[in-house]
Design a protein that fits this description.
Largest sheet: 9 strands, mixed
CATH topology of one domain: Rossmann fold
Shape: globular
Distance between the termini: 53 Å
Strand content: 15-25%
Helix content: 25-40%
Strand order of the largest sheet: 12-13-14-15-16-21-20-18-17
Number of helices: 18
Number of strands: 27
CATH class of one domain: Alpha Beta
Structural class: alpha/beta
Length: 555
C-alpha cells in the first residue's frame, strides 16, 4: 500500500493550514442547539490545552486518561495529549468504579479528562485522589478545573510538535469479555496505516458526513471516525443522547454510517413494529410502490443519504444483512480487533458475500492455522500489551502473526468467514465439539429475538438462551402472546435443526425475563455478549430445564 507517511498530528497541522475556516465538528449542547468547530478553532483549542499540559511538567510520555462519551472535546483532547508529548488512555463511559480504578492505576495516569457521562457517580470512586481532573463543558457537575477556563488562560502552543511513527500514541484497554482488561499499545504508525488503508478501500473523501456515537474508546470508532475524519478532512457530527438519536441522525444526514449488530437489529425491529414483515414483503414486490417504500423507510431511519453502511464488532445475522440490502442499503461487514486497530478485513461494494466479513485490507497478510485459527500480520498490528510481555509473546506466532483466537475459512475470492471463537467452542457429554456462533446467527433471523446465547457444555445437546426484542418483553405475561411465541419458536428450532449436524441440534430454547445490558455486565461496552456471565447467571437452572423436555421454556 502506498503511504503518504503522514502521522495523525501531521494531518491536524495540515487542515489547520489548508482550511481553517471550514466546518469540522458539530456538537449538540441541548435544547436543539449546537456549537460548530472549524478546523482552525478545534486546533487552536487543542494547542492551548497542550500548553497547559506542558506547564504541569509531567514526566515525559505520561499516560493521560480520557473518560467521556463522544464529543468534540474528546477529539481535541486526544490531539492536545499528543502535542504535549504524552500518551492518551481512553476509558469507556460505562465502566464501573473497579474497572476505572484498575485502568487508571495500571496505566499510572497522571491526569484525567472527565466529560459527558450518564453515571459519573458510579465511576467517580474509581478515580484515585492523586489524579488531577479536568472537566469538559458537557461534564456532570464537579469542582475540577474546566476546559473553557484553561483555553482562555493559556496561549496556543506555537510549534508543530512531531511524534515518531514508532512512538506509543495510545493505550486502548480491551473491553474485557473475560478477566481484567488488557492494555493494547498502539503507535502513531499503527494509526496512520489503518486510517490510510481504510480510506483507500472505502473511497472516502472530504465531502463525507459522519455521526459519531459508538464509543470513541473503542478502536472501531477511533479508526473509522476520528482518524478517518482526520485523514480525509470530512465533517463530524455528534449524537446528544439515545432519546435524540433519530434527530441527531437527521441533522447529520450521514453519507457514511457505522453501527454494531445489536443496533442494526433494533433499527429493523423499529421498522417492523410499524410495518409488519409480511406486509412490507408484499409492498416491496409491487414495482411502482417498491422504490417509494424503500426511500421512506431509509428516510425515517435518517439513512437516506448513506452511500456506505458498515457493521462490525460482532457477526450480523445474514437475514438482517439481506433485509437491509433489499431496502437498497448495501450493508458491508468488516472485521478487526483492538490489537490491530480494527484494520484487518473489509467487504467491498459489489464484492460482498453474505456471512463473510470481506477481504484482507491493503498490506494485511492473512492465514488459517492447522487448528483453523485466523492469524494476521500488518503494519497496523499493536506494539504489544502494556506491562505484559508474557501475554504479548503468547499472542504472536514466532514469525510475527497475531493469533486472533477466532476460527475462520477463506473462499476462492479471498473473503473471510468467521466460524466461531476457539475458546467459545464447547464439548457435549457425547464428546462432540460445538461452535455456538453459526447456530446463534441462524436463530437471530427471528423477528422477536434481540440476543441469543447457545450453550450446553457437558449436556447431551446444546440449548439456546434468548432475550426477546424490546417491544416484545413487556408482553411476556400475556398468554396469547406466549402461545404465539412458543409456536414460532418450535418452528424455528425445527428449521435450525435441519441445517446443522445431529450433535449440534438444539434441545430447547429458554426465553429469559432479564434484560442483558452493559449496566448489569452481561454485555461489554461494545455490546458484545459476555458469554461466561450469561452462562453463570443461569447455571443452577440448566439441569431442571433439560429435565422438563419442553421445546420452549420461560424463565
Amino acid at each position: 500500500m502506498d503511504t503518504t507517511n503522514k502521522l495523525p498530528l501531521d494531518m491536524v497541522y495540515h487542515w489547520e493550514k489548508a482550511k481553517p475556516n471550514s466546518l469540522y465538528m458539530t456538537q449538540p449542547i441541548g435544547d436543539g442547539k449546537t456549537v460548530e468547530y472549524t478546523w482552525g478553532r478545534a486546533v487552536d483549542e487543542a494547542r492551548r490545552m497542550a500548553s497547559y499540559l506542558k506547564s504541569l511538567n509531567l514526566p515525559e510520555k505520561s499516560r493521560i486518561g480520557l473518560i467521556s462519551k463522544n464529543c468534540a472535546h474528546w477529539i481535541m483532547t486526544d490531539w492536545a495529549i499528543w502535542m504535549a508529548g504524552h500518551i492518551s488512555v481512553p476509558l469507556y463511559p460505562t465502566l464501573n468504579a473497579d474497572t476505572v480504578s484498575y485502568i487508571l492505576n495500571h496505566a499510572e495516569c497522571e491526569v484525567v479528562f472527565v466529560g459527558k457521562l450518564d453515571d459519573w457517580d458510579m465511576m467517580k470512586p474509581g478515580v484515585p485522589e492523586s489524579v488531577r481532573c479536568i472537566s469538559f463543558p458537557l461534564s456532570p457537575p464537579n469542582d475540577f478545573e474546566t476546559w473553557d477556563d484553561i483555553v482562555a488562560k493559556y496561549p496556543p502552543l506555537e510549534e508543530n510538535v512531531q511524534r515518531d511513527a514508532d512512538e506509543l500514541a495510545t493505550i486502548v484497554y480491551t473491553s474485557g469479555s473475560t478477566g481484567k482488561p488488557k492494555g493494547v499499545m498502539l503507535s502513531f504508525g499503527n494509526m496512520a496505516y489503518a486510517a490510510e488503508g481504510g480510506m483507500e478501500v472505502l473511497g472516502v473523501g472530504s465531502e463525507e458526513r459522519m455521526l459519531s456515537y459508538l464509543p470513541l474508546a473503542h478502536v472501531f470508532e477511533r479508526t473509522f471516525v476520528e482518524l478517518a475524519s482526520l485523514y480525509a478532512g470530512f465533517h463530524l457530527f455528534f449524537a446528544e443522547s439515545l432519546d435524540t438519536f433519530v434527530e441527531d441522525l437527521r441533522r447529520a444526514q450521514p453519507t457514511l454510517f457505522l453501527s454494531v449488530p445489536r443496533l442494526w437489529v433494533k433499527f429493523q425491529h423499529g421498522v417492523l413494529q410499524k410495518l409488519p414483515k409480511k406486509k412490507l414483503d408484499r409492498l416491496l414486490k409491487i414495482p411502482v410502490v417498491n422504490k417509494l417504500i424503500k426511500k421512506k423507510i431509509l428516510k425515517g431511519l435518517g439513512l437516506d443519504k448513506v452511500k456506505l453502511a458498515g457493521s462490525g464488532s460482532a457477526p450480523l445475522a445474514s437475514d438482517v444483512l439481506d433485509w437491509y440490502r433489499n431496502l437498497g442499503l448495501e450493508l458491508l461487514e468488516g472485521y478487526g480487533m483492538s490489537e490491530n486497530f480494527a484494520y484487518s478485513h473489509m467487504s467491498k461494494p459489489g464484492r460482498s458475500r453474505t456471512g463473510y466479513v470481506g477481504e484482507s485490507a491493503p498490506g494485511v497478510e492473512t492465514r488459517i492455522s492447522p487448528e483453523g485459527e485466523i492469524q494476521i500480520k500488518s503494519p497496523a498490528t499493536m506494539m504489544g500489551y502494556y506491562k505484559d510481555e508474557e501475554k504479548t509473546r503468547e499472542t504472536f506466532t514466532e514469525d510475527g502473526f497475531l493469533k486472533t483466537g477466532d476460527k475462520g475459512e477463506i473462499d476462492e475470492m479471498g473473503r473471510l468467514k468467521i466460524t466461531g471463537r476457539i475458546k467459545e467452542i464447547f464439548k457435549t457429554s457425547k464428546g462432540k465439539y460445538i461452535a455456538p456462533a453459526p447456530i446463534e446467527n441462524r436463530l437471530m433471523s427471528h423477528d422477536a429475538i434481540e440476543m441469543v446465547c447457545v450453550s450446553g457444555a457437558n449436556q447431551t445437546q446444546p440449548h439456546a438462551l434468548v432475550m426477546l426484542a424490546e417491544e416484545s418483553r413487556p408482553k411476556m405475561a400475556d398468554e396469547a402472546f406466549r402461545k404465539e411465541i412458543e409456536d414460532s419458536f418450535k418452528k424455528l428450532i425445527a428449521d435450525v435443526n435441519k441445517t446443522v449436524d445431529p450433535h449440534e441440534q438444539l434441545a430447547f430454547i429458554t426465553v429469559v425475563s432479564d434484560e442483558w445490558s452493559i449496566e448489569n455486565s452481561f454485555l461489554t461496552p461494545t455490546m458484545k455478549l459476555k458469554r461466561n456471565v450469561v452462562e453463570d447467571a443461569y447455571q443452577e437452572k440448566v439441569d431442571k430445564w433439560y429435565a422438563q423436555r419442553q421445546p420452549v421454556i420461560w424463565q
